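Changelog-adjacent note: as of this version, every example in the card shows the full chain rather than a window. The one below runs 192 residues end to end.
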Amino acid sequence: MIDLTINNKEEPQKGKILVSDPFMEDEYFGRSVVLLCDHNEKGSFGFVLNNYIDIDINEVLPDLNQIESKLGIGGPVKTDSVFYIHTLGDKVEGSEHIIDNIYYGGDFDTINNMVLTGQILKGQLRFFLGYSGWGANQLEDELKENSWLVTSVGAQNIMDTSETRLWNSTMEKQKGTKYKIMSNFPQNFRNN
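Full-length structure tokens:
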């Protein structure tokens, strides 16, 4: 019999990915892949990378009518606010480095101007409604409960909004037969 619990070998930290347990039944986090944008003794925050709503960013931010971008649901916190990650680095004042060439936030007027002048290419900017947040030690407690697998993915996977199987493909790439098996589990076992 194969043990189908998640066993973490990596610690959560800025730039790591959280992959939800296949049995997690949660509106925001079921079959989710979360980019950790920060993790410290006060808590953690990040964005769900593979949950989208059927609204174009132009409907939420009409000034950005020059860019086509899927709008992600970043998590259950501050769902009335728009957040963004990008690969524009120090071109955007106030942006914070996450990992590799991925940055969080920064001056929105600069982003808007870059969009209007055609300086931003597809795959350089991602938008989210809300974010995912954990208080002090909350994420560690969830890791002890095997709710999340901590791993890494490349910058391209983080910025690619066309990937429809991010949870499955990330799970498949983990070491061990059990993760390949988990990647093929149906999302709702009751329908099986």
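Structural remarks: The beta strands are 17-20, 33-40, 43-48, 52-56, 70-73, 77-86, 96-99, 102-104, 125-135, 148-151.
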